[in-house]
Amino acid sequence: MSAQFIAVPAFDLIVFGGTGDLAMRKILPGLYHRHCDGQLPPESRIIGAARSALNRDAFVARVREALTQFVAAADLDAARVDSYLRRIDYVAVDVTADAGWEALAERLAETAERVRVFYLATAPNLFGPICQRLAGSGVLTPKTRVVLEKPLGHDLASAHAINDAVGAVFEEHQIFRIDHYLGKETVQNLMALRFANSLFESLWNRTAIDHVQITVAETIGVEGRAAYYDGAGALRDMVQNHLLQLLCLVAMEPPAAFTADAVRDEKLKVLRALTQISNGSLASCAARGQYQAGAIGGQPVPGYLEELGGANASNTETFVALKAEVANWRWAGVPFYMRTGKRMASRLSEIVVQFKTIPHSIFGEGAGEISPNRLIIRLQPDEGVKLMLMSKDPGPGGMRLKPVPLNLSFAETFQVPFPDAYERLLLDVIRGNPTLFMRKDEVEAAWTWIEPILDAWSRSQTTPKAYTAGSWGPSDAQALMARDNRSWFEDAA
Ligand SMILES: NC(=O)c1ccc[n+]([C@@H]2O[C@H](COP(=O)([O-])OP(=O)(O)OC[C@H]3O[C@@H](n4cnc5c(N)ncnc54)[C@H](OP(=O)(O)O)[C@@H]3O)[C@@H](O)[C@H]2O)c1
């Protein structure tokens, strides 16, 4: 089976923050892959924009270096790299000052009929100023779109302020708030699984499902982003966006159509149905931790405070586990447990939908324990879906039962490489399809749920519990589930 690549309309993509880590690691290599697959019209251009006083050649040299670093050697073809780099241009512009905007406008003057995308890969406090300057520079056309990177603010008020500042210049349909988790193939497959098969829908509720677990575990620490991370923490950095988006896709009602507003309306209803965690429920519904020195894959790794440069103290959580409740008819009484952390035992993102246990076993004790069925939707490392079923252990020796996976490995089934989430989402922006992007009201509803947890933590005068790097988080995370007589599914551990 081969992948189908549908070309997009001609475009100019301007990346503010073009010299930054995100641009060099994800955006520019991602577009290289789409270039190689022939999806980018020949005249389309990619223009880096940042303060650094570089000429085009110097920027192109940086992009070439980034491709060598972030594209697999097998995909680096000299002729293709050269033809890709011919699309690349650069404009030096400090987005907080006047210089550079005229040069940008000149660079775009001839191509007003093309789709024009401004990708804001900068700190979010620059989003408003950039949009204002764009409006004042005469570069906005009816086919202009703007992409906003996370984090979309620090709390509800700052998210609201960013949305207002960007919304003063762009219409909502022109604004693409990116959450790259939504671009992952398995996440879209979750929608296919739910809404293109009749098998699951009748089971997808409180009658058949015991609970849902969502895990996003990283083995990396704060890398070069200590200053940002220490001001954010796991709840803001991961739960407010990625984990809540995954929860929405599991919990939402079937939209009437796979269109942007129909899907986002349903996700919004889920966010608004989440029971608020507050002072009273904090201890039973939330656990937070901070890693100490340990080892991952046999390699020693430093603790969080050491990674901060030897700080004496920080109350920033590098791990969080939550028990969420979606208070509606479908999900009442079905907990959604979420956990995410840095420096965990392994790199793993997955959703586990655990069905109820059988009401009565007809098998004797010798058959062994009967595990509940689980649908495991794995986002990384190896994307795919597994349905855990009980089966008879083959051979003589009586009826012995064991759980076996019905494995839907996409890599094996489709035999095509999956495009990186950024690649797919970038092309959706160019096509003008916002289905997999967050709407303003969704972002704000997510902050509305997150903010009281942050407030309750700061009022509680507790601190994050220590956990050893290379573990699955503090014991509080296990206790959070043990109180409900449940445990985290640690297939990968
Ligand atoms: N890196 C990631 O993997 C990642 C993932 C998700 C989200 N993000 C978010 O994306 C944003 C960018 O992250 P990053 O890691 O790429 O940061 P970074 O490496 O520090 O890059 C920041 C970029 O912004 C430019 N810049 C800063 N001030 C500017 C100004 N006044 N005018 C014009 N350009 C300016 C910098 O270029 P000059 O210094 O040349 O001006 C640089 O290109 C951050 O908000 C980050 O949280 C990053």
CATH class of the largest domain: Alpha Beta
- Mean pLDDT equals 94
Number of domains: 2
Ligands, deduplicated: NADP nicotinamide-adenine-dinucleotide phosphate
Strand content: 15-25%
Strands across the major sheet, in which order?
A: 16-15-14-13-7-12-11-8-17
Oligomer: single chain
Query: Uncertain spans, ≥5 residues at pLDDT below 50?
Result: none
Q: How would a crystallographer describe the biggest sheet?
A: 9 strands, mixed
Structural class, judged by helices and strands? Answer: alpha/beta
Q: Please, what is the CATH homologous superfamily of the largest domain?
A: Dihydrodipicolinate Reductase, domain 2
Distance between the termini: 33 Å
CATH architecture of the largest domain: 2-Layer Sandwich
Cα Rg: 24 Å
The tally of helices reads: 17
Give the overall shape: globular
Fold topology:
Blueprint (H helix, E strand, L loop, with lengths): L10 E6 L4 H16 L8 E6 L5 H15 L7 H8 L2 E5 L8 H8 L6 E6 L6 H10 L7 E5 L7 H12 L7 E3 L7 H11 L2 H4 L7 E9 L8 H7 L1 H18 L8 H14 L5 H7 E7 L1 E3 L2 E3 L2 H4 L11 E7 L9 E7 L6 E8 L18 E7 L3 E9 L8 E9 H5 L6 H11 L8 H21 L4 E4 L6 H8 L11
The structure holds NADP nicotinamide-adenine-dinucleotide phosphate (NAP).
